[in-house]
Fold this protein.
Amino acid sequence: TVTGFKGPITINGGVENITITDAEDFTLSSATGLKTVTLDVDKASDPALTATQKAPSAFGAQPTAGYTNGTPALSFASMSNLTSVTLTGFYKSVTFTSLANLATVDMDVTTGDLTMSGNNSLTSLDVTGSEIGNVSITSNTGVSSLELEVSTGKCSDDSKEPMSFKS
């Protein structure tokens, strides 16, 4: 459990459960043993930045010039033990791919993209209150509860629909 640390945080192998709040810079490097994840990513706080630079851009885009550690892209893959993820805060994108034991995801985030594919044990996805630019949910055969109350943005490619759902 880490709270309020603003420097880089690296989660490596051997870690099973993490709770990180008010973080700005973290990596799930080789954290393949994770079972539960609770993350709250805050906007930039560097005192040298202006208020405009500190403000998160819509849908988790890179903060304005002067801040080199952009809003993190978060990807969950190759984590066969992962069962539960709770996310709040600001992310460039969030991806869940082929997680055999992932059962629940609860998100209240601002992000550019949410992609979920091949998580066949997933039974509950709740993104109530989130701001998401593009949503793609495919091949999650176990989903029994899907609660999407989100504000969506405009796709970067006007030929695509902002939401995509497939069984």
User: Anything to note?
Assistant: The radius of gyration is 16 Å. Residues 58-67, 154-161 have pLDDT under 50 and may be disordered. Residues 134 and 162 are 5 Å apart (CA to CA). The first helix runs from residue 51 to 54.
